[in-house]
Amino acid sequence: MDDSLKNELRKLGLRVRPREIERAAPGPGQVAFDDRGNAVYEWRDDLLKADTEEAERARRRALAHPGLAIVDDDPAPNAAIRTNAKGLRLGYDPYESGLLPRKPTSKRRNLRELSKWIEMKRRLAKE
Predict the structure, then answer these.
(1) pLDDT per residue over 91-101, tens digit each?
(2) 99 in a domain, yes or no?
(3) What is the torsion angle, in degrees rounded to the nearest 10, for the CA atoms of residue 70, residue 74, residue 76 and residue 78?
(4) In the beta sheet, which residues pair with residue 31?
(5) What pTM was estimated for this model as a whole?
(6) Within a domain: residue 30?
């Protein structure tokens, strides 16, 4: 940033501080594209590029993420349908399907009885 711009910003009461950006440690590889345009993963380390069992274990360790897990989510064929409480708040997701809870309905009112009651109150108020 040139000095004239800094001076103009100072006149406005603003100050400029250079921001330091931390670079993330390079991962075990990167995504690249082959001659056909298909995405391929290029390993950085020669050990990871090898075609041995030890290299396979090292590749699995390099790509392991502690927040991810493989879960068997196929329910039993005769299992009860689970309710999806988040379905109404977040929107319907067909992959996260389940029984959507219904809002409780109020008791039905008999409007004829209400009309009779109002009419009776009016008659009593006249007397």
Answers:
(1) 767 776 777 77
(2) no
(3) 150
(4) 41
(5) 0.35
(6) no
Total structural domains within the chain: 1
Are 97 and 75 in contact by the 8 Å Cβ rule? The answer is: no
* Other CB atoms within 10 Å distance of the CB of residue 48: 18
User: Does 58 reside within a domain?
Assistant: yes
Residue 55 lies in a domain: yes
Task: Give the largest CA-CA distance in the chain.
Answer: 102
Contact 104, 87 (CB under 8 A): no
Rounded CA gap, 125 and 127, in Å?
A: 6
Give one DSSP letter per residue of 25-90, joined into a string. PP-SEEEEE-TTS-EEEEESSHHHHS-SHHHHHHHHHHH--TT---------TTPPPPB-TTHHHH
Domain that holds residue 54: 38-62
Token couple for 24: 């993330």
**Per-residue confidence band for 7, with pLDDT thresholds at 50, 70 and 90:** confident
